[in-house]
């Protein structure tokens, strides 16, 4: 089915029509018999790419499936997601990775790119089948034990050396387990003491970021820092980038807008790893994203079933939803970020980090038609029950966010039309 997207403003700049042929590629001239999408007043961006999504299938299909997570992603304006490996079983073999990739293709709403585990069973000891996962049909390029930190420096060094051979990257969940143990759930500071919650100090993140930067320099391999949350980590990244070390980093939407003081109500919706931080950290993260020290926004969409989340704060699961609301949160947190910067941090750069050649491409003839059309100024009030996700741990419920995803086009196919699944 060919398309004419009429009157969109490309990256918020010049207004032009976009033409998509029936092979799903952007072309020069209007194809005959095309469906027309009226995009008057809308901003066109390349489809968003999420470096960090938890789809929960296989194993926790009560919290999310590859299909429902893909639906949520499309509604958020995404055309590709990297599906984290902390499923059950873990994505630590070529067979497991290929299965996730196939289920993504069957769902057909976004490109689902499996992330491979760094270590077998996320146990932090033996390397997983990194090479076999890379050479499988899933072509895994990003490896992560996310949910857990690869805390043994020798294992991390070997993983970096291994993936260097094929240009892969290790995405690290930076949490020193001795400085922030499994119960740590509130930013360590005056408030954690007052609330009586186990503290998760920023230094537990920063020491791992610093160590990994040095391992990246030593091995000449690539490290990606997942969900950066502190000003100290930003300083380390700035230092490393100034020296040309191959490190990239992501920040989540929630760490750009929410702060520790939300924990005073002990609502487990706000329990997330790493924890929400004070305003000084939030300010440093915003500045770092704007100046390029942090490369990308990644959602860390972490759906959890009610019976895992509805507990006393210390017992509840870590994680919050984020893929349907990411663009609105970024626009609300950083209203002055230009649309070309939004495209850079939410599409072009994440696609490059993940090695997805078909994604994050400029909206020009020859590119695959992965496009999101956004109403830039409309405020939307989030309703957690209107979500495509199977889970309801949505920290944005009832909040007003700027901008609305109106249409999403994945490979020339309209996946979202007028804000609803097509
Ligand atoms: N972010 C979270 O709080 N939770 C993630 C794991 C992770 O990203 O570390 C999850 O899998 O639920
Ligand atoms: Zn993590
Ligand atoms: Zn995660």
TrEMBL record:
Molecular-function GO terms, alphabetical: dihydroorotase activity
Reaction catalysis annotation: (S)-dihydroorotate + H2O = N-carbamoyl-L-aspartate + H(+)
InterPro entries: DHOase, DHOase/Allantoinase_Hydrolase, DHOase_cat, Dihydroorotase_CS, Metal-dep_hydrolase_composite, Metal_Hydrolase
UniProt keyword Hydrolase present: yes
Residues reported in the UniProt entry to bind Zn(2+) 1: 52, 54, 146, 300
Family statement: Belongs to the metallo-dependent hydrolases superfamily. DHOase family. Class I DHOase subfamily.
Protein name as catalogued: Dihydroorotase
């Amino acid at each position: 089915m060919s398309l004419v997207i009429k009157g969109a403003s490309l990256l918020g700049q010049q207004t032009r029509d976009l033409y998509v042929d029936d092979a799903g590629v952007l072309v020069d001239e209007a194809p005959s018999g095309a469906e027309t999408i009226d995009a008057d007043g809308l901003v066109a961006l390349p489809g968003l790419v999420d470096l960090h999504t938890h789809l929960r299938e296989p194993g926790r299909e009560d919290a999310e499936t590859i299909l429902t997570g893909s639906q949520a992603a499309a509604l958020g304006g995404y055309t590709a997601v990297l599906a984290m490996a902390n499923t059950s079983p873990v994505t630590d073999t070529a067979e497991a990775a290929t299965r996730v990739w196939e289920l993504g293709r069957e769902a057909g709403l976004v490109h689902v790119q499996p992330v491979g585990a760094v270590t077998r069973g996320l146990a932090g000891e033996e390397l997983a089948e990194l090479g076999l996962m890379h050479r499988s049909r899933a072509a895994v390029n990003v490896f992560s034990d996310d949910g857990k930190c690869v805390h043994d420096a020798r294992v991390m060094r070997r993983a970096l050396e291994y993936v260097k051979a094929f240009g892969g990257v290790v995405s690290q969940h930076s949490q020193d387990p001795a400085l922030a143990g499994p119960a740590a759930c509130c930013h360590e500071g005056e408030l954690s003491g007052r609330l009586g919650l186990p503290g998760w100090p920023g230094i537990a993140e920063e020491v791992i970021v610093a160590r990994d930067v040095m391992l990246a320099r030593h091995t000449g391999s690539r490290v990606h820092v997942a969900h950066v949350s502190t000003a100290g980590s930003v300083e380390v990244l700035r230092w490393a980038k100034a020296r040309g070390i191959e490190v990239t980093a992501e920040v989540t939407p929630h760490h750009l807008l929410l702060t520790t003081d939300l924990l005073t109500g002990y609502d487990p919706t706000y329990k997330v790893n790493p924890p929400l931080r004070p305003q000084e950290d939030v300010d440093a993260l915003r500045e770092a994203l704007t100046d390029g020290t942090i490369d990308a926004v990644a959602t860390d969409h972490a759906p959890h079933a009610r019976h895992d989340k509805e507990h006393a704060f210390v017992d509840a699961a870590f994680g919050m939803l984020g893929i349907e609301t990411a663009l609105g949160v970024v626009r609300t947190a950083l209203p002055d970020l230009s649309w070309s910067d939004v495209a850079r941090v939410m599409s072009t750069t994440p696609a490059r980090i993940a090695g997805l050649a078909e994604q994050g491409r400029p909206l020009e003839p020859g590119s695959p038609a992965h496009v999101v059309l956004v109403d830039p100024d409309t405020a939307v009030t989030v309703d957690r029950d209107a979500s495509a996700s199977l889970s309801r741990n949505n920290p944005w419920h009832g909040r007003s966010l700027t901008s609305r995803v109106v249409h999403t086009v994945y490979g020339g196919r309209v996946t979202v039309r007028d804000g609803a699944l097509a």
